[in-house]
Design brief:
heterodimer, A: two-stranded antiparallel sheet, about 70% helix, B: about 75% helix
């Protein structure tokens, strides 16, 4: 592995691991607010549900905090040339996250966990509302930063070649950020819903805490169906259209579309063969890619071969796979939650043990889909760190040697293994104890 | 504009040291101060609602440095790669030590996290102190204006320097002692019974050590970094900051003797603010001093454009006012206040 590769791998590893936690806390923050709203109308079972999920939320939140700080640091430690060149622009959105979101969240969490009596029902509801706002604001500033790297706006280059901020408003209202943010948040809600449905189904199958568990599943299925549909349309669709317009080479690579044609099929399955420039064992829906991009039966869709090789994402097969994994799982999510919602509507969900088994076992898949989605975003941006203006290969810190990065990479791997073990212990303990009064 | 942001950054750093500093102090002390489970609960409750918010000052500091002084962030973070990574790992253990302990009611589990919390706090105080020492002593830049500090070289301050040498270790030890004192003063205002008695006794015993080390550190700093003496000639008012620090230290003793713990804590905070402000005023106009021919990075030479710095004030000031609001709320809603 080269120095560039090890710097990249460390960031990829730490950010991928980190995002397993915030997608759950951002999703749960909304679900907790919804449950807390039901509780305001005097439904004690909803309050029980809130207490249970706040416990899971708190542990997950701490994990998100401790794995998030290294990411902010790594912009400087591992990507110094990038920080120097672009910090004057993207530093602003990162700093806003700390100032506007983290302080708010940290001052609320303790009150939410231990202050239900002291705050009263409306106070507790307000705290849940602010927590939701805090976590989702945090998401906006981070996605805004990422969106700027995908589609840089609102900057100028000074005489030393350093990028300087020209308009903070342009950075904050980047059209890419709005599409990417809505898609990311919908993804987080999917994770929250599947997690809540899974734990609820687990209790129902064991006939434990049945009232609370039914509330988990019903809220999660309804919201989960809405979010799963929204992930495909309009948010996913808007995101793909932006990629098609601004990163056409990424679009071709994602779709596994090698050759320019007027009647392009949509690839469902197949393995990219980069030597022969074609897909092995393909299953395609004829003409669908053309229809989806042009809205008519005949229209040119540019293939990967049309673009110079040095503009291609540097790992086309992986990009193609993660994109297809995300889309495939997303389709299954709509089907699962749709099935759940139909059964719920007919009043038969609690008797459908098969469906409850499916919901329980579905837990890992939204995490995989969200991860695959981010890998699509980040691999698709390559070979650029800031699309079209700054190469990834020019960004890493040359003064930090290969050996030192391997040392810290191994350190992070060890630390994160430990964190996973602790998180698993603690959450299984919370789940095994079941919904009940919060301990003081 | 760069000068203004230099002051704001120094203020944020000092606030981080003052606030998270007492968390470190409590962490270092808690194994001795709390001898039974109820006492341990009392000690952890004294920081439980606020420690996370205190840590956020570090994150906000990093973000502010990123947009206001991108070149400083790039140079310093990459150069101090190893200690920063160690800080990150220690912060993880510290956070888990506080938050995971309550998740299981098992004595071995609790003990494990208690010790992890104490060790992480101690090491964090040393590393933070050593880091400040490095900034004061200066680093060995190479020809392209970068540096990479090894963890140590030969522990002397001549030639190529590492993170740890006698001078930065002195800073580390002084920081441990000062923050332990600060933590004891905080606990004395937040606890009762035996814990209160022990906290006060520890604060009392540590005070002379804080005074002694302050004198040694200031003397060593002037000797190691002659540019600082020149700064005092340029900005004589900076002596006032040092006097403020000493006043705070004196106040911490006086108020503690009168059992006015809230005032003693404020005085101890004034001491830390005074020390940090003196240091900042002596380093300026540099943000990172160089050793050898490369003089170092200045605030003006490493800042973002004037437009970016001006723009940032429009959101940073209202944002920080909100932060002061949240912080005041968290501290006021803590269980038994001063």
């Amino acid at each position: 592995m080269s120095s560039l590769a090890v710097h990249r791998f460390q960031f990829a590893f730490t950010v991928t691991y980190h995002y397993l936690y915030p997608q759950l806390t951002m999703g749960l923050a909304l679900l907790i607010l919804v449950l807390k709203t039901f509780a305001l109308r005097g439904e004690e079972v909803a309050n029980e549900a809130v207490r249970f999920w706040l416990k899971i939320f708190a542990v997950t939140f701490v994990m998100g905090v401790v794995t998030g700080i290294p990411l902010e640091f790594q912009f400087g430690t591992n990507w110094a040339r990038f920080a120097d060149q672009c910090g004057g622009v993207i530093g602003q959105t990162l700093a806003m996250e700390g100032v506007f979101a983290f302080f708010l969240e940290s001052s609320l969490l303790y009150g939410l966990l231990y202050g239900e009596k002291r705050l009263g029902p409306w106070g507790h509801w307000l705290a849940a509302l602010l927590l939701w706002i805090g976590t989702w604001l945090s998401g906006y500033f981070i996605v805004c930063t990422n969106a700027w790297m995908q589609h840089p706006v609102g900057f100028t280059e000074d005489t030393n070649g350093i990028l300087q901020l020209e308009s903070i408003a342009a950075v904050l209202t980047n059209p890419w950020a709005i599409a990417e943010y809505s898609h990311t948040m919908v993804g987080a809600v999917i994770t929250g819903c599947f997690t809540m449905a899974s734990i609820g189904a687990f209790y129902l199958l064991r006939e434990q805490s049945v009232d609370v568990a039914r509330r988990f599943v019903s809220v999660a299925v309804v919201l989960g169906l809405a979010a799963s549909i929204a992930a495909a349309f309009p948010t996913g669709d808007a995101q793909v259209k932006l990629i098609l317009k601004h990163q056409p080479v990424t679009f071709a690579a994602m779709e596994g579309h090698f050759h320019t044609t007027d009647k392009a099929g949509l690839v469902m399955i197949g393995q990219p063969d980069m030597e022969k420039m074609e897909l092995d064992n393909p299953i395609k829906i004829p003409d669908l890619l053309t229809v989806m991009t042009h809205g008519r039966w005949v229209g040119e869709v540019r293939g990967l071969q049309d673009f110079p090789n040095d503009q291609w994402p540097d790992n086309v097969p992986l990009l193609y796979y993660v994109y297809h994994i995300m889309v495939g799982l997303g389709t299954l999510f709509i089907a699962t939650m749709g099935w759940g919602a139909v059964q719920l509507g007919r009043g038969r969900l609690w008797q459908s043990r098969g469906l409850l088994w499916v919901l329980m076992l579905a837990l890992p898949f939204p995490f995989i889909a969200n991860t695959a989605g981010w890998l699509t975003t980040e691999l698709g941006r390559q070979p650029w760190l800031v699309y079209g203006i700054f190469h990834t290969a020019d960004g890493y810190s040359t003064q930090v040697s290969y050996g030192n990065v391997v040392f810290t990479l191994l350190g992070f791997m060890g630390m994160y293994t430990l964190l996973s073990i602790f998180y698993f212990f603690v959450t299984t303990h919370i789940i095994a104890s079941g919904p009940g009064p919060v301990e003081s | 504009m760069a000068t203004l942001w230099f002051c704001l950054l120094a203020l944020m750093l000092a606030t981080y040291i003052v606030l998270d500093g007492f968390d470190f102090g409590v962490g270092i002390l808690h194994l001795w101060i709390a001898r039974s489970e109820p006492e341990r609960q009392q000690v952890l409750r004294a920081i439980g609602p606020v420690w996370d918010g205190n840590e956020v000052w570090l994150v906000a500091l990093g973000g502010t440095m990123f947009f206001a002084f991108p070149k400083l962030l790039a140079t310093a973070f990459a150069g101090f790669y190893l200690p920063l990574m160690i800080v990150l790992w220690l912060l993880m253990f510290r956070a888990l030590g506080i938050e995971l302990r309550h998740q299981f009611h098992d004595p071995l589990w609790a003990r494990f996290w208690d010790v992890a919390f104490a060790l992480a706090s101690l090491l964090l105080a040393i590393v933070v102190g050593a880091a400040l020492g490095n900034v004061v002593r200066g680093v060995s830049f190479n020809a392209d204006g970068n540096f990479f500090a090894p963890l140590w070289t030969d522990f002397r301050i001549s030639g190529t320097v590492g993170i740890l040498d006698w001078f930065t270790i002195l800073y580390g030890i002084s920081t441990v002692v000062a923050l332990t004192h600060h933590g004891a003063v905080w606990l004395a205002g937040r606890t009762d019974g035996d814990v209160l008695t022990r906290s006060r006794r520890i604060a009392q015993c540590l005070w002379p050590a804080v005074v002694g080390l302050t004198v040694v550190v200031v003397a060593a700093t002037w000797w190691v970094q002659p540019t600082m003496v020149r700064s005092i000639q340029d900005r004589p008012w900076s002596v006032g900051l040092m006097i403020l620090a000493l006043g705070g230290l004196l106040g911490a003793r006086m108020f503690a003797a009168r059992e006015q713990q809230r005032r003693a804590f404020i005085a101890s905070s004034v001491y830390l603010y005074g020390m940090m402000a003196s240091g900042a005023s002596w380093i300026f106009p540099y943000v990172l001093v160089g050793r050898g021919e490369y003089a170092g990075l200045t605030a003006a030479g490493s800042s973002a454009s004037t437009y970016a710095l001006t723009m940032a004030l429009y959101w940073w000031i209202p944002g920080m006012l909100l932060v002061l609001g949240y912080t005041a709320y968290s501290y006021r809603s803590m269980p038994d206040p001063f």
